[in-house]
Write a structure and sequence with these properties.
The protein has helices spanning 2-31, 40-56, 61-74. The protein is mainly alpha-helical. It has 2 domains: 1-34; 39-73, no CATH class. Residues 40-74 form the Anti-sigma factor NepR domain.
């Protein structure tokens, strides 16, 4: 019968380890606000920050000038009267 006691103790120890693991896993998920991406969230945040910085930059004068020229050429011209 000592083997059964040993098995019961090992089983109980494994259950305690599993519960501890699950508790830590849930706490980690809560600290990330339930973020399903985990470590990839940091990459996503940095990419978003880079994009936001890029979008907020001023358009270079030369590029703005080229866009204006393109808009002028794309405007429909009034049809000529015959």
């Amino acid at each position: 019968m000592p083997t059964e006691l040993g098995r019961d103790a090992a089983k109980e120890a494994n259950e305690m380890k599993y519960q501890s693991f699950e508790k830590g896993r849930k706490a980690g998920a809560d600290s990330r606000d339930g973020d399903p991406l985990g470590a990839n969230s940091e990459i996503g945040r940095k990419l978003k920050q880079y994009y936001d910085d890029l979008v907020s930059e001023d358009i270079p004068d030369r590029f703005a000038s080229l866009l204006s020229q393109l808009e002028q050429k794309e405007k429909p011209q009034a049809p000529e009267k015959e």
